[in-house]
Amino acid sequence: MKKKIIISMHYMEIGGAESSLIGLLEALDPSKVDIDLFVFAHHGVFMSAIPNYVNLLPEDNGYAMMEEPLAMVFKKGHPLIGMARLLAKWKMNRFYKQNPSEKDRSAGFAYIGNEVGRVLHNLYNFGEYDLAISYNYPHNIVLENVMAKKKIAWLHTDYRHISINENLEFPIWRKYDQIVSISPGVTEGFLSVFPSLKDKILECENMLPKAYIETKATQASIDKEVDVLTLCSVGRISNAKNYDNIPNMASELKELFKLHGSKIKYKDFKWVIVGPGDHSTIDALSEDLGVRDNVIFMGPSDNPYPYIKGCDIYVHPSRYEGKSIVVREAQVLCKPVIITNYPTAVSQINNGVDGVICELDNKSVAEAIYALVMDSNRQSTIINYLKTHDYTGGAEVEKIYSLIGLNDNMEK
Which pLDDT belongs to residue 408? Predict the structure, then answer.
């Protein structure tokens, strides 16, 4: 008899968690498990990537209000949810006022889940599952509103770099049977905050939908000048991504081009950045530093993969990451990758083998790009390695099967 799994996700917009969820769905074997997918709000480009053997549960009007603009929540006739979200916002602001921190303020979903979860109806009408997976925040929903013999929550973030209310989150995490961490670095960061939860950790690499990535990468072509080096970075403009320093990195790289122009096969470079967010301040800095024509923001895209496929080097200059999905996606597309030495970097790249790790400062990033450009043999070695290795992580699904007593030898 097949096992029943339900997976909860807030939406399916372009993002690392969404991409890895599609990878997990593709890795799950429909001959072994029946899969229900509960997406709070049915929007996002990855909705169309959900495999046809996955049972997409109907959108629920209440759950869909989790991230709608507040005015829209009230307009659509959900005053209780609107009031709960206002209360969550007030509590969150009070917490940060009492606990000022330079870290990213990422506690919002925990407050929303805590308050809004109280006024949402449960999902017991879907029946009892063998396994319930909360794939992203808020983790209250699966914990409190789903019937399942076993429940697990996915951990995507390095807790060393976000400001959270430990007293609010701990009671949620500790009630899960397992906490799935995407990398050793993410595990280390989480346990630095919640050391007593060590025995609940299950490390499981992100799973990526290779066929989907490769297909999307060929759906458009990017105009490229042969004698212009094309760099690419993909992601939302945020403190974590460190895009505010790209103009400085580009300025350093431009100086290297000037100093060593006769040795470089490219006459110039373009750094293409794909992702949402306000880049007006970064544009102004680029103008001041004389790299306005080099640093190019493309804005958000439903399909960033042609940009990755069309670049010469993928650069990921983050201040911190859990484990970047887009770095793996670039490796799936066999692109040389340069990442900064954030705390979880060594779990992402085998330095010099399948990518390059450089120090987290502007000059070091520029020098790493220049060094890779000048070493065509190293580029070829990295590309050839990527072509012969699997970066989809599909075998990790066995860890999920083991939680519900499944294995390769079971009768189908």
Answer: 52
Report residue 334 CA to chain centroid gap.
19
Q: pLDDT-derived band of residue 318, with 50, 70 and 90 as boundaries? A: very high
Look up the pTM and report it.
Answer: 0.85
> Residue 246: which of 367, 373, 362 has the closest Cα?
362
Q: How far is CA 384 from the centre of its chain?
A: 26
Q: Looking at residue 346, what DSSP letter applies?
A: G
pLDDT of residue 106: 66
Task: Give CA torsion, residues 11, 304, 325, 23, to 10 deg.
Answer: 60
pLDDT value at residue 409: 44
Instruction: Please give the single-letter amino acid code of residue 334.
Output: C
**Which residue type, as a one-letter code, is found at position 366?**
A
Contact predicate 106/163, CB 8 Å: yes
What pLDDT score was predicted for residue 412? 36
Closest by CA to 398, choosing from 131, 204, 111, 177, is 204
Would you list the DSSP string of 126-145? G-EESEEEE-SS-THHHHHH
Q: Which two tokens stand for residue 314?
A: 């993928």
List, in order of start, the domains of the chain with CATH numbers.
Answer: 3-209+393-403 (3.40.50.2000), 211-387 (3.40.50.2000)
